[in-house]
What does this fold into?
Amino acid sequence: MTQPTVAWTRVSRPTSAAVLGAQSGPGQTAPMERPKDRPNRGRTRPAWLSRSVINVVLLIAVAYALLPQVWLVMASTKDLHDLFGTNGFAPGAGFNLDENLRYLFQAQDGIYLRWLGNTVLYAGGGALAASLLCVMAGYAFDKLEVPGREALFGLVLVGVMIPSTALALPTYLLASKVGLANTFLGVFIPGLVFPFGVYLARIFSAAYVPDAVIGASRVDGAGEMRTFWSVAFPMMRPGFVTILLFQFTAIWNSFFLPLIMLSDTRLYPVNLGLYVWNTTAMSQGRPEDYLLAITGSLVAIVPLILLFLTLQRFWRAGMTAGAID
Amino acid sequence: MSTPMIRRQRRTAGLLLGPYFVLACLVTLAPLVYAAWLSLFSDRSSGLGFGGVEHVFVGLGNYLRALGDSTFRAGFVTVAAYMCLYVPVLVVASLALALLLDSGLAWARKAMQAALFLPHAVPGLIAALIWLYLYTPGLSPVIGWLGGLGDNGGPANTAPLVSVINIAVWQWLGYNVVIFYAALQAVPREVVEAAAVDGAKTWQIAVRIKAPLIRSAVTMAALFTAIGGVQLFTEPKILDQASASITSTWTPNMFLQSAAFDRNDFGLAAAASILLALVAGGASFFVMRLGRRGEA
It folds into this structure.
């Protein structure tokens, strides 16, 4: 799944029928059998009971979300013997994280750091350039006189409809034709186009940039370009960050394209490197590569999780952008 | 009727839109056109094997071969089965959790949402790796608790579809909870209060009032989940390493990779990729139409 979803958070107008339709039905049977002499049988359960049932269900869901990550942290602190010999959610007999990290960063002449650097370039650089293109296009669609505006915007939406993996193999075929297969650009260039980002940028331009401000800037004699860069762009900055985050995650997540495009390990993004280590651990009798794949996964997701937690506000803006009219 | 002002705007719009559209042509249109062209040819070893390989025009031959290939068709069946299970499970579970969070009885709503959302920060490949290990007998702390799951090489081998769905649900559950919870915040409180005064219980308010009012958000999430499902590749590609039941052509995307790189049959791979793009694009178009109708 790489395609972000849009949330249509507009609420249909409640009718009185909807409200009246909610007659009180028969009481729900409580999960625990109560003594028969209780006067409130068949009516409401005590508040503390529903409160605890609700929270227990939620906590089970939270445990499901977090335990696999706990496992990853614990596994990264173990040596090979403890990895297979001790419980996955508990610490091992010894603490081996420092040793695993040293092993990770020294493996194959420090190739892991190189992969991290590549990923920052692919995802960071690619998303930065892609978001800039999206904001430029979105602003033009929203605020400028564009001949055939809706037809052009329809083309953007067609781009939204073609899933990225369906393009991966054709992209590889074309890249090998023009000599870009197995090069940095072969993976980098496809990340520059983000149709959904143009769609978001148009919404953000309408929401954040008042027409009156643009009009005033024109009256003051600023050219159209100057108006965009100095007046509109700063106003659209939160939207820019939102689009940046979405595309950053999409490129970080992409696996099919680099897998078929790259054969030179020095050009790999982290994803692909971890996949290869896992393959050698599983099928080529190199069990010590488990430690590389596991510790490498942990090191790769720590910055991403921090990014998510600090930028939650921007995520929400992108996920619920459909609410803005 | 073009004033200097309109001319200026058009020129600027060209400069702002140009870079995006030029790149989009190079990255989206050109590969599809080139793949469509390649899909019309096939490499045949000519004569008695002396003439090397000939590049021959075969018309729609590759398309017929792809459609006639039972493993390619089976890949679409796998994806269809995956979606029939995955979409309802994901949507119902995330809607239920969002309603519980919104019930007014949940503790620490913000922290719970953040915790549920966290798996979405984990790249798909790493999520698949973590679960691969959690499915592996001898490595997994979970399989031991659940009795017979560890038999026959673990769940990835005995129940590949469920194993793949679980990874996808783990990644997308919190994402959809956040969307649904945000939609629920827009439900007018007076409606909820009126129902409570009328004697509706908390669960009835959730199921009969709140859920129908955010129907459009739920529909959109379900449809977008379905679009993503067509692309199924990463999770089975990883589990493939530990599962005899996941073959190298288990999904359409895996078939493409196998046709191109295991069999070097680029004509067939190109034809199959065009067919996949058509199916996926068609599905997306259908989704957008439905989404627009939901808006009206």
Summary: Residues 69-295 of chain B form a domain with the MetI-like fold fold (CATH 1.10.3720.10). Chain B has a mean pLDDT of 86. Residues 109 and 185 of chain B are 13 Å apart (CA to CA).
